[in-house]
Design a protein that fits this description.
The protein is mainly alpha-helical. The protein has helices at about 10-15, 35-40, 40-65, 70-90, 95-100, 125-150; strands at about 20-30, 120-125. It is elongated and about 45 Å long.
């Protein structure tokens, strides 16, 4: 999962006109020990990631409505597109069938509201760091576990 284009250096070099977003973005707490994370039911972990991605997509979409066309809008559009792409992958029929086969006794519907505590920020760099942590932490652990289960 390459999220290298979502770095502070990239923003500073290519899009210095936007360091503060016009609206706040919800960021769930990303610090968690791998053992604690893996002790939770698989479906709960999947639902948490999906809800985080949904919130990110919605909040970025709202922020995009408030910025003018240009670098800022383009960067937010790419962030929204990337987060949405991960949602599509995780909810693809093939993935959901495999998950149901591997975890047949678990509930498969994600929560409607964010259960995890979250903070709100208008700092674009912080939003991008969060997205990177989500991809390189929880989502990567989940996909690795899924991959090992399918082997």
């Amino acid at each position: 999962m390459d999220s290298s284009l979502w770095t502070a250096d990239h923003i500073t070099k290519d899009c210095s006109d936007l360091s503060r977003l016009p609206s706040r973005i919800r960021l769930p707490v990303t610090k968690i020990q791998k053992a604690d994370w893996q002790s939770r039911p698989f479906q709960d972990r999947m639902a948490e990631i999906l809800q985080s991605l949904r919130n990110l997509v919605q909040d970025v979409k709202d922020a995009r409505k408030l910025v003018q066309a240009g670098c800022s809008s383009s960067l937010l559009e790419r962030l929204e597109h990337n987060a949405n792409s991960y949602q599509v992958i995780l909810t693809h029929r093939t993935i959901t069938v495999v998950i149901q086969q591997l975890h047949p006794t678990e509930v498969t519907s994600p929560p409607l509201t964010q259960k995890e505590p979250y903070e709100e920020t208008d700092d674009l760099d912080k939003v991008l760091r969060y997205f990177h942590k989500l991809l390189s932490g929880r989502l990567e652990w989940l996909i690795t576990e899924l991959n090992l289960s399918c082997s």
